[in-house]
Specification:
Helix content is 45%, strand content 13%. The protein is α+β, with helices and mostly antiparallel strands. Keywords: ATP-binding, Kinase, Nucleotide-binding, Transferase.
Amino acid sequence: MSALLHAPGQDPRIEQLKTWVARLGAAWSIDPDSCAPASADASFRRYFRVRTGHPAHPTAIVMDAPPSHEDCRPFIHVAKLFGDAGVTVPTVLAQDLDQGFLLLADLGSQTYLSRLDDTSAHNLYTDAAAALVKIQAATRPGELPAYDRALLQRELDLFPQWYIAKHLGVTLDDRQQADLREVFETILTNNLAQPQVYVHRDYHSRNLMVLPEAGNPGVLDFQDAVIGPITYDAVSLWRDAYIEWEEEQQLDWLIRYWERARKTGLPVAADFGEFYRDFEWMGLQRHLKVLGIFARLYHRDGKDGYLANLPLVLRYTRNVAGRYSEMRKLVRLLDAIEGTERPTGFTF
């Protein structure tokens, strides 16, 4: 999530939202004028904090999801799936699907991103890994859409469309296009061969909340969850677009997660080397997609806050691509579109 919001007084839906919370009745006794921006994300959803007269919920969060752009039902469904798995998610306290409003339990304002440092990271990531294993272990077929080839491919296509063409202003020649298609196919073949579990899709430091009591972390922004590759959320967590850790540290946390997953009976690869390769190649899919999404958020949606994160995402992409001979064409393409000269004799 980001802090990109219109001021409440300028928002065409704010009076509609205030009227709705006021009509929730005496059990809630919500003060409409207490409505204040809490956060927003990269979609059309926004979140407001309100004061209530409810003894168990002195404050609550109102999700504003305009029905013309967003559907609240997946959020409600995934909240139940993850909550039943034993993970802390915002309880849905009231809903109006026709207007696109949800009243949610307030999990506070302390994101992982705001609290992560060298002292806190071990405990916070241990909690996040434990919650992730619970989510994955709860997987049941048919509950969520498949993270299938078509969806993975559409995401990859954001990279040439928005990052290369729109953001860099580069037109790929026929050979470069063919090389990129070949790289995409190699990545997708690996991704689709991985064991399939529930995937949050944005399990990172801006969507995990630090809770003051047992139940850490609070998990947000899960409405786009799918069933897909088992390494996806681990990539989101430890190769986060918003905070960087040394690879040795990433590896330590990933090994601990892998050991926990194996003990729980999750279908991770028995050989860590094989699992790590899956993790890295899943990361390529995610980071190429994210380069496209961040460029699109700027060029299409006017949200420039994500541009500062492009260099880190590109660094993740280059580091992984440079380690595998199958990805030499991706490295060559990145060199070409960014004007990078490699020393003579550079090999894979």
